[in-house]
């Protein structure tokens, strides 16, 4: 079942946004990916957003760069949670995208992750879905335990080898 919609302002955002898809794949959560621009395909974007909730979409992840209005448009038309991913831009390195995505007016929230942080957007979507999905909540807890273990192992190795050897082996 498709529960998450991943939207991209352009196909040039796909290389960054694939990390959101990959983490959803890891947890076997259904999603669809579409290129829908707030500026270049405004009518199609609104049409998609108005139908999304009835189709069973629970969360939207929207990535866009530059004058990044896609996540904001999603939040204006979709009743569920919207997670915005500011994509790094050539001219301003994503600061433009970040500010365009995060500075929403009161009443129309977008949960904005860091610049190019599509993996975190995917994880946040999973956490939203896990509120009503015990099995997913369990899997997420296991994922976090493994993440902690990996860091502890790295720290142990660093202390064993010393920083120079550690870096050489990296
Ligand atoms: C934004 O403009 C897109 O989200 C993309 O990040 C940026 C550049 O788009 P392209 O010119 O590469 O299609 O709308």
From TrEMBL:
Reactions catalysed, as given in the entry: 5-carboxyamino-1-(5-phospho-D-ribosyl)imidazole + H(+) = 5-amino-1-(5-phospho-D-ribosyl)imidazole-4-carboxylate
Residues bound to substrate: 10, 13, 40
Residue ranges of every copy of the PurE domain listed in the record: 2-151
EC primary class: isomerase
Pathway involvement of the protein, from the record: Purine metabolism; IMP biosynthesis via de novo pathway; 5-amino-1-(5-phospho-D-ribosyl)imidazole-4-carboxylate from 5-amino-1-(5-phospho-D-ribosyl)imidazole (N5-CAIR route): step 2/2
Family: Belongs to the AIR carboxylase family. Class I subfamily.
The protein's name in its UniProt record: N5-carboxyaminoimidazole ribonucleotide mutase
